[in-house]
Design goal:
single chain; four-stranded antiparallel beta sheet; 344 residues; alpha/beta; ten-stranded parallel beta sheet; 3 domains
Length: 344
């Protein structure tokens, strides 16, 4: 059963504007007196809530909490009441994470990183995870990292890493998005040419890209997972589907779509691949469309020839009529000649 400590916020000084201040007592590991006017509720996670007492003493508040906890051991709502009116008043509360290395004061434009011994500067970076952004440089700006060991060595701007060791070794390069376990983890390992404008989504997608691999897109597990494996970069490649483009080691302007859609060679450029064994399938598809186009062309040509034939037949009628008229005229002349001979 979850138990809650409930302070009458109006009678105890008024922290904020709510009528009651509620603390999940089930998440409290122990209470700790720190000074005459402050005490802590240490949580199970190791984090702590520090209360400041404006009127009265911290001991008075602790005593009141212990009283209600003992008297209502099976209660769900534990209302903390002073032993007398205004015996104590709470005036402030702060939260401290259990993780080490978090800046004691967070400025408006400062880096906020939760993790194990992270470094930080005023680069407006945001990170969460064990050792995330641990060794970023002062050049790192406006990056976001969530996950163990993400963007550990970043030296550039506008990158997003989500997932275990995503963009772990990334050094130089901007506008990269890596989402998934081990995604783009090798980017920047050689600290060579910058890798920029890449988008990879999926476990181990783009894991080996480095030394000038830019403008690549991979969606699916292990897409373009071996690009740059031979030390030669590749750019402007697109791979969509599980393991799509996974055999491509270097090359530019390739598009591979479908589950295990592989390029024809490890080093190739300007190739379009559609599905498994896609080169043969694509040729069959192209041939089919060529034949279909030829068929429709022949149908149209046949119809056109029929139209021409009909027009020619229609236009020949006057010629036939003219010939027939001449024959009639010749017949009349012969008749007249015969009559003339007969008369003489």
């Amino acid at each position: 059963m979850t138990q809650y400590l409930v302070f009458d916020n109006q009678r105890t000084g008024g922290i904020g504007t709510q009528k009651e201040l509620v603390v999940n007592w089930s998440n409290v590991k122990y209470m700790q007196w720190t000074s005459t006017t402050t005490f802590k509720l240490v949580l199970n996670s190791g984090a702590a809530l520090t209360f400041t007492v404006g009127t009265g003493t911290a001991k008075a508040v602790i005593d009141s909490i212990q009283d209600v906890v003992k008297s209502q051991a099976n209660g769900r709502v534990l209302k903390v009441k002073p032993t007398s009116i205004n015996a104590f008043q709470l005036s402030g509360i702060t939260y401290a994470s259990s993780l080490t290395g978090v800046p004691s004061t967070i400025k408006t434009n400062n880096t906020l990183i939760f993790g194990s011994s992270p470094s930080y500067d005023e680069g407006i970076n945001t990170g969460y995870g064990w050792e995330t952004m641990q060794s970023i440089t002062t050049n790192a700006r406006r990056n976001v990292a969530f996950g163990h060991d993400c963007l550990r060595n970043c030296n550039d701007q506008y990158n997003v890493a989500v997932g275990y060791e995503a963009l772990k070794q990334h050094y130089d390069g901007v506008f990269n998005i890596a989402i998934g376990y081990d995604c783009m983890t090798g980017s920047g390992e050689s600290e060579g040419a910058a890798n920029s404008n890449n988008v990879f989504i999926g476990a181990q997608s783009g894991r080996d890209i480095d030394a000038g691999c830019s403008s690549n897109v991979g969606v699916g597990r292990s897409t373009l997972g071996n690009l740059n494996q031979n030390g030669s970069p590749g750019s402007s490649n697109t791979a969509i589907g599980n393991s799509a483009g996974n055999t491509l080691n270097s090359g530019d302007n390739n598009t591979m779509i479908g589950n295990s859609a592989y390029s024809s060679a490890g080093t190739v450029s300007n190739e379009f691949v559609l599905g498994n064994s896609s080169v043969g399938v694509l040729i069959k598809v192209i041939n089919f469309f060529i034949l279909l186009t030829a068929f429709f062309f022949l149908v149209l040509l046949s119809s056109f020839l029929k139209i021409i034939s009909l027009n020619c037949f229609t236009n020949s009628v006057p010629l036939i009529n003219a010939s027939f008229s001449l024959r009639l005229f010749s017949f009349h002349l012969s008749d007249l000649k015969a009559l003339s001979i007969a008369s003489s």
